[in-house]
Structures are given as structure tokens and as C-alpha cells.
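Chapter summary example: a protein plus flavin mononucleotide.
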Amino acid sequence: MRISEAISQRRSIKRYTDRPVSREEVETVLAAAALAPNHRLTQPWRFYVLGPQARHAYGLVLGGRKAKKIEDPVAAQAMRDTVAQEHRRLPLMIAVAVVDNENPEIREEDYAAVMMAVENLALAAVELGLGTHIKTGAIMADPAARAAAGLRDGERIVAILNLGAPAEVPAAKPRTAASALTTWLD
Ligand SMILES: Cc1cc2nc3c(=O)[nH]c(=O)nc-3n(C[C@H](O)[C@H](O)[C@H](O)COP(=O)(O)O)c2cc1C
């Protein structure tokens, strides 16, 4: 597959088939991620591959956060359980973390490098017939979410990636042409 095809075919995938993602496939997409450009070659990315138990634990945290807005305790518990089960049923989740750096310039560069790694991973997944969905949000800093993903001290989650064979590939979302957002200078 040409890179241009992978770029244009990539979508955020919400629904996956039951087909498991093999360890070899995970290793292939992570190898692509670790080839991302990276100033000073700090290699700041850390990958946590979440199996069913870890996904369930992460889903419980996310469900618990959603449940805080629900007054009825039975409905709140149902929300926690539903979200936990949804996460357990995902073919695979990867928590992508960055190693924190005290230097603000390196910190920003390292975050950018990790996000380039995320894009490499997403494109490599397309080549394997897999899809991804990048998830972010305040939950990433929640100590319970960090614990569920097994994070070490000195690291922070920058994205949660769902990975699997797409059950449905949505149409491309309309985007502004790059030419309309480009300024050419002499
Ligand atoms: C840094 C980043 C964070 C994202 N966070 C979320 C998220 O928290 N929840 C979500 O549903 N989608 C999230 N997305 C996916 C975007 O919503 C998606 O890329 C966008 O709608 C364009 O759709 P496409 O990926 O199919 O082209 C995120 C994407 C990026 C790059």
C-alpha cells in the first residue's frame, strides 16, 4: 500500500469486529511508531498494551467519571459496568505515554514526537487492514486511569488508542483544502 493511500483511507474507527489483533500486528505498528522523527532522539514514547483486564479497569475509571453526573445509584453503577464491558470487548487498547521532561522546550518537542509516533502507528494499522481511534481528555491525568494503564512515575498519558479490525469504516469528514489555509511568501 502506498503511504498516500494509507493517509487517505485512515479514519477514526468506532466499531470493531471480534477478530483479535495479534501480538505480531501490535509489534509491527509499535515499530512504526518508534521510527517517528524525534529531536535529540530522546525516544520519549512509552507504550502500554492493555489486555482485557486492564481495559476493563480503565473502562471502570471512565465509566465512574461519567457516572458522577448520574444521581440514581443504580443507573450510575450500570453506567460504570457498561463502559467497563465496552472496553473489555475492544480488540485492543494502547495507552501512549510521554516521558516528562523538566525543560519546557524539550517537553513540547517530546510531546510532538510522540504524536508523530501516534500517526505512524495509525497509518501502519491501515496497511494491516486495522483501524484506530485516538482518545484524549482529562481522564488521562486521573491517577486511577494512570494506574489502570500501568503508568510509571515521570510519564503521562498523551493518547489512548483503540485498535482493531473495523466493523464499519465511516466516510471521510469534510475538510478545508490545504490551499485555503496556506500562505505562500516570496
Ligand atoms: C489529539 C487527538 C485527540 C483526539 N481525541 C478524541 C477523543 O477524545 N474522542 C474522540 O471521539 N475522538 C478523538 N479524536 C479523533 C478525532 O475526533 C478525529 O480524528 C476527527 O474527528 C477526524 O476524523 P478522522 O480521524 O476519521 O479523519 C482525537 C484526535 C486527535 C488527533
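Key point: Residues 136 and 159 are 5 Å apart (CA to CA).
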